[in-house]
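Render this sequence as a predicted structure.
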Amino acid sequence: QFLYFIGFLREADMSTEDAPCTLIVHYDGTSPATKDLKEALEKGDVVTKTETLKTIIKLQLNGEPQGHFIMSVIKYCVPVENHTLKKLCIYFWECVDKMDDEGKPLPEIILLCSFLRNDLQHANEYVRGVTLRFLCKVRERDVLEPLVSAVVPNLKHGDAYVRRNAVLAVHSIYARYSNLIPDGPEFVEQMLVEEKDVSTRRHGLNFLFACAQERAVRLLVAVRDSGEEHGEAFQLCLVDTARQLIAAHPYDRGNYLPLIMSALHSKSPSVLYQCAVTLLTIASSPTAITNAANTLTQLLTTHSDANAKLIVLDRLVEMKDRYLRVLQDNLMDVLRALSSAGPDLRRRIVDFAVDLVCARNIESFTVAMKKELVRSQTDEIGDSDAQQEYRHQLVKAIHTAVIRHMDLAPQVVPILLDYVCEAGASSYQVIQFLREVAFAKPDLQDLIFDRLVMMIPMVGSSQVLRTILWLFSALCKSATSIVALVTAIREALNPLPLAPEIKEGGNRDDHGPSTISSTVVREDGTYVTNVVLVDKKKEVERTDLVGLRAMLVSGDFFLASSLGNTLAKLVVQMHHHHGHHDMRNAVQDTCIDIIDAIVTFGTSGLTPVPLDVDNHERLMTSLTVIKNPKNDFLRNFVQESVEAYDAVRKHEAQQRKKEAKQKEAKGNAAIMAALDGADGEATEVIMGDVDQPMTFTQ
């Protein structure tokens, strides 16, 4: 741990070329005397020398010069054949001042160079490697110059560790003082011809690209023509080098693109990702963009790490604005990633997939969403809350996609109808979708109406039930459907009159019969008091109060006022049908009984929440309309309210079509620009990466 920490401090200390940066390193005790440290180096064993040298390095890093220990370290530590002590000696040479005040090397450094030269020719590969690594950090020319002749032979050493560090040493020396090793690029190029170690080849390619690009180009061409399989590290280096060369010489991209395209067959996810990102940065041909999209989609589907999938998905989202048409062909591959995704990733994939839906893939999208709806009811998704949230996302996605392409609504409506009674936000999303479909596809109105009538006693959301009641008032046109609906509502409210639910375990004295009285104003202005006998025990025995009755009994009078409005509209429409006199009267009487029961219950004082003034006024207005329905104004009002919603729906549909056309035109423009070599005018300014090449034509 100490060696690792000292290595970190060394990097910080050597990070500037102007002056070393000293760091305060805490250590126990006071600064030992110089005499004691020198004596420990001279007479101590290996363990003592190791601990003493650590102390000296700490003092040097804390800003206390320890140059007077150079000779002691050379005489008593450097000759010792111990790897830990050898490593500490290297750290000491890195942090100690090797020049005097006039900028000339200290006399002891000449002796140090002799020992370093011996280490560069040492039989142990570890000693050679750490010494070569040390030379990468040396900035003094006088130290490097006598060691160059010993560095070059290590390029042909039998151990890959030594060759790897030898390449780094040659790179460092050539970058600082190229005249010390003028043939360095040639030596490295010759070595790379037969080199098999991946890291060594990567370091060599980086050196050639930085110091001799023409040799790097020859190496890239040789690698491209060889067709051999390379390691992950070297492939990443190849792709990055090709990207930089294309950025510097955009007209020569044809020489390097095949190298990147061949790397797309790699088995390494990091190489595939880097190739795809590079193609998006430097290429504009449809083939390259398609390969990049396919590669990113493959990573999204097959990679096991969730964080990596999020990064890949972000890249695909960035592509959407520019290459939408290309991504639309990969929609099903994107949806396959849902089978192995977490909650957050599933949400983002579904949102992304909705944006890719078009006329070419809408049918496949709906089939996949229906399968996911079935899978959302299994434990594979998680607990009940996770399942409900996922179903809400899927229903919302189906709603958004099918509204844009109404031709597939008949395939989706029967499935979504099963989720109207589900608790949570998904049921409201479903009923909103059904409302739009009912107006856009009149041939589906009968199916929707019949299924919703059956669900009145089972709906568990007041918001959903209010929407259903409004939808009933808009869809019911025939006398037969009105009678069936009013009958279903009456059955859902049974038994009347309404009374609050009494939970088991209540007072036995409250279980007997009681009376509820209410005052009703007749049409002629007279008052009549109604007394109703209520059997509370019967209410206690009824424990399955669900749907419309349960909500009204619990005090949801906003729902009651919506019910009153619906009944009033139904009666108005019923009285404008010719004939059916008996049916009209029956419907009218039933609606009056329902509203009268609600008002009586709300004003009885037995409700959990009292009937407020606003809802009472709305109920009484509905009751007045039901008693006097023969008015053309009321019929026109009912019809115009439906037409107003239909007008809003059509306007929103036109806006969606307009936006879809704009997106499609934008995607087609990007593809045509790619086909034309990006010579035409762009429809939108797209900000690319900083190293993306710009092509100027004359």
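Summary. The chain has a mean pLDDT of 78. DSSP finds 34 helices and two strands in the chain.
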